[in-house]
Write a structure and sequence with these properties.
183 residues; alpha/beta; 7 strands
Length: 183
C-alpha cells in the first residue's frame, strides 16, 4: 500500500473511532433526567433542586482520568465567576465506593468549591452517557432541558463551554408576560 492510501485508511479509521464516541445528540433538547446522589458530606442532592433556578453543568469525572483532572480547574474558575449569575456546576464523580477518601482529598487539596456528588454505582452516568465516557459534560438550561453535551476534554474546550453557559444565562426568558390589549 502506498503512503497516500495508508494515510487515507488511517484517517478513516480515526474518524470512525471518534464517531463511535460522539455524544448522543438525541439527548439535546430533551428534559434532563432527575436524579438523587449523595455529596461528600453524605447529604442527598437532587438535580431538581438546581434545575429551573439557573443553568446547570453536570461534569462526570474520575480521579484516575487525566483529562478530567485537567478540565476541573477550568470548571472551578467558571463556577466562581458565574455562580452569582445563576450557574451551578454539579461535579459527578464515578469512582468506586472504596475511593471515596481519595475523591474527598482530591477536592480538598485542589480547593474546589462546586458541589461534588458520588455516582459510585454509575447509575446517573448511565442515564446521561450510556457509553460511560469521561470526562462528560452536560449543560442544562433554565427550562430543565439538555442544551449541550461535551464528550472528552482538550485544552481550549473550556472556552466554548463558558460561551455556551454565558449565552444560556443571558437568554433568561423571565416570567411570562401578558399581551397588552389593543387600543
Amino acid at each position: 500500500m502506498n503512503g497516500a492510501i495508508r494515510r487515507g485508511v488511517a484517517a478513516l479509521v480515526a474518524a470512525l473511532a471518534l464517531a463511535s464516541y460522539a455524544p448522543d445528540a438525541r439527548a439535546i433538547g430533551e428534559a434532563a433526567a432527575d436524579f438523587s446522589l449523595k455529596d461528600l458530606k453524605g447529604r442527598t442532592v437532587r438535580l431538581a433542586d438546581y434545575s429551573q433556578k439557573g443553568v446547570v453543568v453536570l461534569s462526570f469525572w474520575a480521579t484516575w482520568c487525566q483529562p478530567c483532572m485537567a478540565e476541573m480547574p477550568h470548571l472551578e474558575a467558571m463556577y466562581k465567576e458565574l455562580k452569582g449569575s445563576g450557574l451551578t456546576v454539579l461535579s459527578v464523580n464515578t469512582d468506586e465506593a472504596r475511593n471515596h477518601a481519595l475523591v474527598k482529598s482530591t477536592i480538598q487539596q485542589k480547593g474546589y468549591t462546586f458541589p461534588v456528588l458520588l455516582d459510585q454505582n454509575t447509575q446517573v452516568i448511565t442515564q446521561y452517557n450510556p457509553r460511560g465516557m469521561i470526562p462528560y459534560t452536560v449543560v442544562i438550561g433554565r427550562d430543565g432541558r439538555v442544551k449541550a453535551v461535551h464528550a472528552g476534554y482538550s485544552p481550549g474546550d473550556e472556552t466554548a463551554l463558558k460561551e455556551e453557559v454565558k449565552a444560556l444565562l443571558a437568554a433568561d426568558p423571565g416570567p411570562p408576560r401578558a399581551t397588552p390589549p389593543s387600543p
